[in-house]
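Example complex used in Figure S2.
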Amino acid sequence: MIQLIRGVRDILPEEVGLWQKIEKTATSLFENFGFCEIRLPVIEFTELFARSIGQDTDIVEKEMYTFLNKKDELITLRPEATASVVRAYIQHRLYAVDPVQKFYTIGPMFRKERPQKGRYRQFYQINAEMIGVDSPLADAQLIFMLVELFNRLSVSDISIHLNSLGCPECRPGFKKTLQKFISNTTAKLCSDCDRRKDKNPLRVLDCKVFACREAMKDAPSITEHLCNECSEHFEAVKIALNDLNIIFEIDKRLVRGLDYYTRTTFEVQTGSLGAQSAVAGGGRYDKLIESLGGPSQPAIGFAIGFDRLAEIISSNSVEVSCKPDLFIAALGEKAKNMALKWSCDLSLSGIKTETDFSDKGLKGQMKKADRIAAAYVLILGDNELGEGSAILRNMTTKEQISVPVDGIVENIRLRFAENQKVL
RNA sequence: GUGGGUGUAGCUCAGUUGGCAGAGCACCGGGUUGUGGCCCCGGUUGUCGAGGGUUCAAGCCCCUUCACUCACCCCA
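Predicted assembly (423 residues):
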């Protein structure tokens, strides 16, 4: 048997209802906030990701699916969506009419990591990106919209973590301050932190090893080393969030692994996903568009982990069904031919109709109708054919009536149209 | 890439010191000739993840390998 590739998975029909519900909730909410859908390819030139995410990040260094095409160009299955959104914004000069553009997009991303709970090699994200707005009010609005999505999906076990990473003006200075603190500390860091303390000292703040957390307990905080502009921006975001009654906590260890982030970063965390606590995350990337060759426009966005969101909702079990309204139990060849026509016509008129074309007896077909939870069964056998009628049975109340074969589709259609008071 | 756990029927899982491959659920048939659920009776279902080794004999012991899973790293 051919099995699926490691780290990817099938979303089976019973789960798809939940996925559709999440998708509909998100898209209608985002559109109410003025975001428009954009659909993007899943492959791009590798350089796009190397330049946006950062050459030295783990994602680019070892987690991308990268191939050589026939023209010897390096192409990559996208590990995230923001880079592609920005590329499209620049390539199609969407800024020419109005530099302010708001997009959302849903689709699969790919990262070659060892799979575990809530982490797959093909995973799905819902992204929202707002380009061209610098105001801290935009940051607050975006976070408000994100929180509202969780509310609408009845996800309550979450917390909002907030931080600011500064900008190219103030971050290098903080990096040096932090490096000085680390080299002065006597405490022993784990081998990973020892390795990354020079290249990316911010990551040491994020380490989960107890010894490192202890050692970094009194480490300088970036929010205290922001330049005036960044500091004012961050304060304004906090005030705006308070005005919107968004409860959040400042998390100075929230550093994130993509190089393009500036200023505001945030994460939605949950306790119900094992070691994977982040279910959504995002932040500002004010310099990315310019660095990819576009106009100098600020931007902010977030990504929601679709698989993770579905996971935490399904543990609260949302029932989404695709039960048929009507099951046609036909006995004999003539009856089956009539059933075929009827079921096609009824399906077209919006009634979920199921038919069994096998040679099962009536008992077997009733059993099947029961198993798939059909609300009504239409029985057509030799007796009924002789009388020119069929039997319509309510599977809950066991009531049944005789319906003339002449005009039966219209008859049933009208019965279902009358507010489900079919029988 | 590193470490732990788990692989036996469609599903959930038993399987003793190595000795005929099991249960529940599901499915199929019958009881009830054309009426589902509940009940009763009967039946089907296996590369015991794969490959090799030890043995008269391996689901069980040994080696290798693969997959799943959880965690690390990192991230949504």
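The two ends of chain A are 47 Å apart (CA to CA). The first strand of chain A starts at residue 36 and ends at 37.
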